[in-house]
Write a structure and sequence with these properties.
By secondary structure, the protein is an alpha/beta fold. The chain folds into 2 domains: about 200 residues, Immunoglobulin-like; about 280 residues, Aldolase class I (TIM Barrel, Alpha-Beta Barrel). It is built from 14 helices and 22 strands. It is globular, with a radius of gyration of 23 Å. The N and C termini lie close together (about 10 Å).
Amino acid sequence: MNLARKPDRARRWLAAVATQALLSASLGVVLLDSAPAVATTPADARPVTATSSQLGKQVAVPRAPMGWASWNGYFSSIDHKVIKTEVDAIASSRLKAAGYTYVNLDDGWWQGQRDSAGNIVVDEKLWPGGMKAIADYIHRKGLKAGIYTDAGHHGCGYHYPTTRPAAPNTGSADHYEQDMLQFQRWGFDMVKVDWCGGQVENLDQETTYKAISDAIAKATTVTRRQMVLSICEWGTGKSWNWAPGAAPMWRTSHDIFLYHEREKPNFSKVISNFDQSLHPTSQHTGYYNDPDMMMVGMDGVSEAQSRTHMSLWAVAGAPLLIGDKPSTMDATTRAILTNREAIAVAQDPRGLPAVEVAEDAFQQQVYAKVLAGTGRRAVALLNRSSSAATMTVRWADLGLTNAKARVRDVWTGTTAGNVATSHSVSVPAGEAVLLTVAGTETRASRYEAEATGDTRFNGVRANATGLAVATIAYTNGGPTRTATLQVNGQR
């Protein structure tokens, strides 16, 4: 499908194309919702009518993981006491109830020893009973367990020491199948695979991570357990182009702060990592761009900045992995992290990311996220400037009609009803306002695809700017079919 737009808006419109897979029992159809509905049709493209049953059954997609990761709070200095303390804090607080279920042990858990058969040997002074014991403890609390390794021979703690002496041989190179099987047998539900060793050893990102993904799948056939792969190559190999299908999440940027470079948590890295996570053509149906774990509530990030941080990760649909220590977390930070409306935006079952739809003034940006249901959007108004500004979101930019809509401010918990055309709000300097909008979808044009290689959608035009949604209904059965949406030749 070629959806022609003005060249200077092609990037933004391309980013605004969203797809959803639907269950249906009849012919495949493509719907193009544009703002306004002015799509023109080629002479040989046949509009068809889609039934409500075709359009109402969103396939459930895996949600982006939520949980806590040990690195930002402890770096390499973790052991069973540290992990149990944080597990207890998560399980006994609102964090677990809000959906933060993963407890991820980062670098530092393993000191790099293997036995004669190549199996990982653990220091039982740090981990009494071994790693299965700590995974069992996490599971008994109703949580999930995550673990860490590197794609190379040595992990990041060896190449970039932090709070514990460098330990060699803490990577999984030459042991992918063996280690993934061992992790699963211990009971781990997620593995983060870092890239420090992989980078030093000049490994190929795509080939390496696909081999690791295959090793996890092979282990699953033995253990009957599922284990999520978290790709952590920091976007060096443009993982968003090849990671979907190999893993459900992939890092798009470097660490949100680098301890070995003596960085401190700072809000500028929040904005930078958010910017680098915006690859909307890659995030769909259970595959997620990952801008790294969060710094909400950490020293150096204010309360207002923490709300903006949460807002941006929410509209991005990013994994929500807490970096602050749950055991010492203050009530304000906990309230931000457990805001039900912000989490609902982040965990929306449609699984789509936000895209920029307007920038009326320099550094005053409007990001929109298509939510499940009809006429529902999440909107982040991000004011990057040094002065407070009145910012406006227009329904047309959201792919909605100008009919009256309901607007809710996520952080103040206030609702404005019967708002027509647009909504304006004051946004403090360097902050964001997070809204949800419930309005009326624009009228859809429908086109039928009848055969493999059918190109009759080429040349469909949406002659106005703004967000547009392409909804694709698939026929059940048969082999997987792949379609590519393009705007001005860009995927």
